[in-house]
Each structure stands twice: as structure tokens, then as C-alpha cells.
Amino acid sequence: MKKSILILVGILIAVYIALSLLSTNQEYAAxxxxxxxxxxxxxxxxxxxxxxxxxxxxxxxxxxxxxTKYPKTRIVKQVEMALAEFYISNKKFKEALLHLDGLIxxxxxxxxxxxxxxxxxxxxxERSGKWSDAVKIFDFIKEKYSNTPTGFxxxxxxARYYENNGNGTAAQQAYLDAIAFYKKLERDNxxxxxxxxxxxxxxxxxxxxxxxxxxARVFDETMKNYKAPIYRVQLLQYVDPIFVTKLKKPEKAMQxxxxxxxEIPNKQIKQMLTKKMAQIGKLKK
Length: 285
Description:
Elements: H1 2-46, H2 53-69, H3 76-89, H4 93-106, H5 111-127, H6 131-144, H7 149-164, H8 168-188, H9 193-208, H10 212-225, H11 229-246, H12 250-263, H13 267-284
Helix pairs in contact: 1-2, 1-3, 2-3, 3-4, 3-5, 4-5, 5-6, 6-7, 7-8, 8-9, 9-10, 9-11, 10-11, 11-12, 12-13
């Protein structure tokens, strides 16, 4: 009986080792092909207008080979997204949309990846000149994936699109919409890291809109609601821009720095704050 158990254990160990080696070999093979594909793609990026068709075809073939031959590898999701980006950069918008729709259906259990694939779908519409369709996608991301890094950035992405295209009125409205989005996100996640990030985003937007008094109001609320040292340290970057540079209230900045110096345990930061207060002291004279 013991001999049979030992034999069985030996077989299981051998199978495990064989599977591990197979997995390692597949990872290496997939990464090798991916590296070759990206090298070829870099040549295309340098001169996309004159890239030979066979070079374009070779990149697409290599990426598809990894997806079909090595679907269980760790790198496959990166390859899937690289193929979408390849289609978009080479204006193969129909292929990009079909591929991205497939990814959204393929990975429903991974909200971060699905959100990124959905965002790239919006980018595909944007690059193909269909901004109204792109906005529908981005608005959907704002609603469904607001807690993901990509979803968090979408409101600002929309505003900057209008800004970069010289549509000041639309940009202004988009920034106001972004403020409403972050205000709700902070309220729904009060005291959590994403809540703090939402407050920080609001401060940045108010500074962008030259509304320093509202930036100061959000700062004060954030000081009151986020007392952990990690938040206190991050708040330092907003003190000078809001209270010294914009509002011309060095005494308020001095008060904040004194408070933070007491609450932040890090010795180097305390020393930095001492220097900051000395600088403000010179401004007040």
C-alpha cells in the first residue's frame, strides 16, 4: 500500500514538473515572438506612411500567433491589447472594433482589462473622426467603471479633448461635469483612497479653471476628512499653488504647514516644512 502511494506521489510530482516546464517554455516562446513583433512595429511607427505591407502583415501575424497558440500565458492580455493598438495606429478601425468587442466578451471577469478595452474602443471612434460615438463609450465607462484607474481619468480626458481642439465652451462644461463626477465619487468613497484622489482631482480642475477659492474650499474639506499621514503628505503639493501663488494668503499657508508638521511623523518632511515656513516668513515681512 505504501509503495503504491509513493509511486502515485512520484507520478504526480513528475506531472507537476512536466507541466511547469511546459508552462515556462510557452511563456518564453510567447515573449520571444512578442519581442520580435514589437521590434517590427517600432520600425512601422517611425515611418507609418511608407511601411511596406509585408512588415505590417508580419506584426499582425506574430501577435495573432501568440493569442491562438499560447492563450494561457501571462503575456496574452498584453498581446491582445497590443493588437488593438496596432490596428488603431494603422487606421484599421473596423478590425480594431471587432477585436475590442471580442476582448470585452472574452474577459468579463476582469473589470480593469475590460474597462481598458472599452476605453480603447472609444479611442478607436475618436481617431476615426466619430467623436459623438466616442463620447457615448466614455460616458458608459464613467458610469460602470468609475472606480478603475482608466474610468477615473475619463472625465478629464473628455475635457482635454475639447480644450486641445479649441472648443473652449465645451471644455468648460466638460470640466464642470468632471467636478460633479469627482464630487459624487468622493462622497460615495469618503475616507477611502479613491475618495482622496477624487478630492485631489477637484482641486486640480478648480486651479485649471482659475477658481482658486473653490480649490481652497476643497482643500479645507480634504484636510478635515483625510487625516492619515499618507494623505497629509500628498496634500503638501497643493498648499503653495492655492494659498501662496493664487490667493496671496501666505499666513494661511503658514497655518497649514504648522498643522501638518505636527501631524506628519517623517523627520525629513518636518525639516522640509521648517524651510517652507521660513520662506513664507520672508514673504510676510
